[in-house]
Amino acid sequence: MTAALWTRDDAVRATGGQPLGRGWNASGVVIDSRAVRAGDLFAALPGERVDGHDFVAQALKAGAAAALVSRRPDGLAEDAPLLLVDDVLAGLAALGRAARARSTARIAAVTGSVGKTGSKEMLAAALAGYGPTQASQGNLNNHIGAPLSLARLTPSAAYAVFELGMNHPDEIRPLTRLVRPHAALITNVEMVHAGFFTGIEQIADAKAEILEGLEPGGAAVLNRDNGQYGRLAGHAARLGIGRIVTFGTDTAVDVRLLDSASDAGGTRVEAEVAGRRLSWTVGGIGRHWALNSIGVAATLLALELDPAPGMAALAGVSAMRGRGGQVRLDLPGGPLTLIDESYNASPPAVRAALAVFAETRPGPGGRRILVLGDMRELGAGAPAAHRGLAEAVLAARPDAVYLVGPEMRALAVALPAGLVTAHTERSEDLATVVAGAVAPGDVVLVKGSLGTRMKPIVTALEALATPTRFAVAGRVVNGG
């Protein structure tokens, strides 16, 4: 029988809430009533469009052990198991704080302008070789996701990894003080989410907030190649952090990338780790995966672990759908390769994706087809940032370019006449155009910010596959 994650008494002590109805034990914590599994505690968060309190009855019917609420919803049975608090989000954070207080796990926190989710996934895979490991799921890295992830931390975990994200100053500070990591990895600092900052130095300051939650004796893990390294190291010194573990291609680092090479099976990495030469394979494709992997090795060093065993696990970590996952779509006349980068986009991330796109060979008679959507949250620098992609686009040697969104006008003007096949304001207007243009052997890269909604284009391409089956990282899965 699985041990309870939260007993009612423990949850009451953690939140200071009032228990109502029958007793309960919870084996998990969720905030989406559609994701409830038997034994979960459902946190009924209020939102701009929907209020979780309206779905408490549905959650309990689906098997939730109890609901965390700030008011009693109408229509519930008298003995419905509830935990009444003043504020549900504050109650969720209180559960996270209590979970952290009782945990003996060694904890790593990860942030950065790009690469943080992939680094988190690699780090979780590596740490699993040393003991039971938990990690924040998907993109749960904000003021809701981080407390939720922490509230799910089991007492038996030996290691845990939490991704912390932001697009404003002062967002990471409360999260890192909640997580209290033993090692804090900053993958890099780039002009991403720049619309809320006056310059890259302010972005660096916001990323450096992660260092404020470090446990005594904890270590900062910093990318020495990044232009903001000195500023980040200065923050560490100001905070009295005595250990900085560095990574990059510079000779004066703790973990140095020596070489990398990618093919369809992943990326082979050669590195020098604390004076020892090591090699490993990452399932993800591209040099950016190699660079992120040495940050993972540096984080293992920061946690006082021998990196060699953990790095061997990275061969099983590849890009997720929407974040660079490569998909083989079986068309009637042969396969097509889709590089699905539809989840997000920023100037450095687009350049990294274009490098992978350039290295991915089309099949016989195939072409390289590029579909790019607007990059969001770039502020006044948006036109220059989009225009500045032209050199990288040309270096990738696309046979056809399709663009989505008003910001992409700047790139369209910067590219040679005739290279841009179509440019639409909305992705929905381009989906059928792209789907009608592709052919067996083609390699298609689809990338854009989440707000640009590139997913309809991916969906239209997937609909071409017969019989709705496609291969992801070498595994054949059902479509849909």
Strand content: 15-25%
Average pLDDT figure: 92
For the largest beta sheet, what order do the strands appear in spatially?
Answer: 9-10-8-11-12-13-14-15-16
Low-confidence runs of at least 5 consecutive residues:
467-480
Give the strand tally: 24
Rg, please? 23 Å
> Major beta sheet, specifics?
9 strands, mixed
Query: Structural class, please?
Result: alpha/beta
Helix content: 25-40%
| Terminal CA distance | 34 Å
Gross morphology: globular
Helix tally equals 16
GO biological process, one term: cell division
Function: Involved in cell wall formation. Catalyzes the final step in the synthesis of UDP-N-acetylmuramoyl-pentapeptide, the precursor of murein.
Domain Mur ligase central: 110-299
Pathway: Cell wall biogenesis; peptidoglycan biosynthesis
List keywords for this structure.
480 residues; alpha/beta; nine-stranded mixed sheet; eight-stranded mixed sheet; 16 helices; 24 strands; 25% strand; globular; disordered C terminus
In words, what does this structure look like?
Its EC number is 6.3.2.10. The protein has helices at residues 8-15, 56-61, 88-102, 116-127, 145-151, 172-179, 200-207, 229-238, 287-302, 307-311, 347-359, 382-387, 390-395, 409-414, 427-437, 455-462, and strands at residues 6-7, 18-20, 25-26, 28-30, 40-43, 66-69, 82-84, 106-111, 133-135, 159-163, 183-186, 219-223, 243-248, 255-263, 266-273, 276-282, 325-331, 334-341, 368-373, 400-404, 420-424, 443-447, 469-472, 475-478. The protein is an alpha/beta fold and 480 residues long. It has a nine-stranded mixed beta sheet with strand order 9-10-8-11-12-13-14-15-16, sandwiched between helices. Helix 3 (88-102) packs across helix 5 (145-151), helix 4 (116-127) packs across helix 9 and helix 15 runs parallel beside helix 16 (455-462). The longest helix has 16 residues, at 287-302. Residues 467-480 have low confidence and may be disordered.
